[in-house]
Amino acid sequence: MHHRPRSGARRGLAALTTALTAAVLLAVPVLGSPTARAQAAEDVGTEDATVPSGSGADAVELDTTTYVPASATAEDPAPAVVLAHGFGGSKQSVADDARDLAGRGYVVLTYSARGFGASTGQIGLDDPRYEVADLSTLLDVLAERDDVQLDAPGDPRVGVAGASYGGALALLGAAYDDRVDAIAPQITWNSLTTALFPSQAGPVDEATPAATPDTGDSGVFKRLWSGLFFGAGSVPTGDGLLASLTGGSTAAGDGLPQIDPGSLESADVEQALTCGRFRADVCAAYQQAASTGTLTPEIAAVLDRSSPAGVLDRITAPTLLLQGTQDSLFGLGQADANARGIAANGTPVKVVWYDGGHDASASESDTEDLRGLVAGWFDFHLRGQGEDPGTGFTFPVPTGVGAAVGSVQGGNQSETAADYPGLSGDAVQRTEVPLSGTTFPVVTPPGGNPAAITTVPGLGAVTAALGGTTVEIPGQFAVFGSEPLDTAVDVVGASTVTLTVSSPTGTATLFAKLYDVSADGARTLPSGLVAPLSLTGLSTDPTAPTEVEVTLPGIVHRFEAGHTMQVLVSSTDQAFAAPAEAGVYAVGLADGASLAAPSVSGTVQGESGATRWWVLLAVLVALGVAGVVVAKLWGARRRRQLSEVEPDGEDVPLRFSGVTKSYKDGFTAVRDLSFEVRRGQVLGLLGPNGAGKTTSLRMLMGLIRPTEGTISVFGHPATPGAPVLSRLGSFVEGTGLQPHLSGRDNLELYWAATGRPLADAHLDEAVEIAGLGTALDKRVRSYSQGMRQRVAIAQAMLGLPDLLVLDEPTNGLDPPQIHAMRQVLQDYAATGRTVIVSSHLLAEIEQTCSHVVVMAKGQKVAEGTVEEIIGTGGAVLLVVQGDPARAEQVLTGLGAAVERSDEGLVVELGDLTRAQAVSALVEARVGVDQVTPRRRLEDAFLSLVGES
């Protein structure tokens, strides 16, 4: 070992990429150990040393400090504890904890991990070949000390503790080195792959409270947190650059090799500037993930190598798992997986959840309690002293969070259960909360922007304390809610729900959240947590979607009586990488789906503490740095309530309810109009000029607002700019084509304006439906009126919208084209879509439409099927085979009045039905070729609205 005078530890880079996060770090430590300063013990000495570790190109020198209590001597050696720091920290980050443990009689070794502080080397993310091997080297050092208790030669009695990066090292160290006798990892990971590429879709073992699905072949990249990780290992400038190139320091007199900058290879410089102190494979994995947002086998190999998940069955050291409820980096599911994996090996495991984590420091009293828990764990398992801490489960008492500043509820109370549910005893209890809601179209914008704002690294929990500063983008989410709760529901863990999802591409990226909605509509996102979903193999048919089991974020929260539990599923979140391609998903609830909310019964311990005003102060500082723009955006969004969606919206694509449109001059164009159109119908909107048809269609498309009443499209209000209008294709009041462009150019330009990929336009299908042929590539100025009309209809059909609205679509078409258009609209509706046609060609409406709404003077005068409007009785035209005289004789004998015409027999049926007339003719061996109403739609129309 090389001994040298103790010097101030160099600060690890905290290159956090935004001013907002930097401001939060001033008040709420994020990457280091979440402990407050402890009172130093007067009888604790320190020894600084540089410890070599590794060999060859991987050899490093670790900067260490050992804290030695006066009570530890060669005659009375003491157990040892190795304290590992968090990512971006150094040995100084755990100095207060070290003094506390040393004051309790332990020999405590702290050190800066390779690549951090004054230690040399490159960061391998707790790689078993490097960082874990370094821990074994430090255990060798402890075994050589005469003041450290030994279990055998070379085997010290030792525990390992640490938070985050240091916590994973404790787990991996216990798995790879059986000399470790007890561990206390805190706020750390089980699987780096699942943590940084989460996907909380798929079945889980619901026996434990916070079980979370493992990431499969794909996950959603946790972009902001990963960026903070990489930033913390970024290369410094000046001398720091040389230090990173040499793996050490360039300061004179520090005992490390000096370097001539002129001797550096350009490749070394590029590596240092690009990767800082990261190893090349870690750097390459991050760069690929950051640029593509995609989990590849190469990235997974790097992350899995540094994950305890694969080696938990090797851990025999009693384990105290401390995990924070305010943690958007490593959630409760990571500790749940560690607990299950370690306990399956028969190793004692105690689980403690506390009010803190990467998003918020624990309170001073909680910090002292956590130190006491760690010390008590080591006292029993290393010294055999004190009470057996057992294998129980401790968690904060669930509380709600007030929406106003200064109203944070709860304190330092906790509950303790005898066991962590599902490890060895009974499974966790779950409360079934029924949910309701229709199927929603959820839009993904191009590039995933604008994105919802929910989880901000370091801010997730403290912003939730102010009522949840979240921003959900209209049109980008589906929401499913419970009825107001009769009694409070305490959620301790991760709730589950089954959704239905379809996607045109068979894949989808979604984000599920569990909101607490108060009686006055204020929404809170507990702990600011989000569950990403990376979905593949989905149905492409919205009428037959795929069921998806979803695990919501693990939380500890009370939903008070009178509140509503809402599951919100969005297509974007600014903390995660989103697909660049735009798209529309259909998201709904599975039949009979309910929210399964876990709860745990325990004994309440501790006294209620004072309100944590320091948390509120930290939030105010953060919000100040966020700036006026974000504050205004938050204020506007927070006041906006979630739209009430009609539960039958997918079955009723269009509903007018009491709609009136009046103008300032007193003219009322539409008055108290109410009707609905169901899926698969072709509705004809009829009326003379001035009846209000076009005004009604313009209100439907959000071009103008109704004075009174509501219009809903697929259950959503059809307000100007409403995202649901993206499901509507329309052709109203002229073609709007650019004459100097070709028909194809016009169609592509129109679709480009929607911001969606050209592949989603189904251009070839729309062109084929409209029958445009080769003329599509000619300039529009050369088109006939009929050709322009067909291009406009193809434009309305781009994207194959679920609701198609056409105003006078057959104007300018010749009879064959009109006949073809009739079949096009009927076939289009047969796919489950809906068509609305406004036309003056009553004969075409009669032959094309299944339903009709007749308007006159702004009001509805009739509504029903075409047959209902025409009438089932009255005169019919019969075309018979053989002898018309025989047919006339049969019908006259039944009381009908019969006249002959060039078309056939015109029969006034009277009380006779059509079926009875046809049956009588067949029995008389008279063949019937045709039976059609003699009263046409035109007759009915004129009788309803008058000749004028």
TrEMBL record:
ABC transporter domain location: 654-882
Stretches the record annotates as Disordered: 39-58
Annotated GO MF terms: ATP binding; ATP hydrolysis activity; dipeptidyl-peptidase activity
Highest taxon listed in the record's lineage: Bacteria
Signal peptide range: 1-40
PROSITE patterns listed in its UniProt record: ABC_TRANSPORTER_1, ABC_TRANSPORTER_2, TAT
Pfam family membership, one: PepX_C
Transmembrane segments: 613-634
UniProt keyword list: ATP-binding, Hydrolase, Membrane, Nucleotide-binding, Signal, Transmembrane, Transmembrane helix, Transport
Protein family membership: Belongs to the ABC transporter superfamily.
Protein name in the entry: ABC-2 type transport system ATP-binding protein
Organism annotation: Klenkia brasiliensis
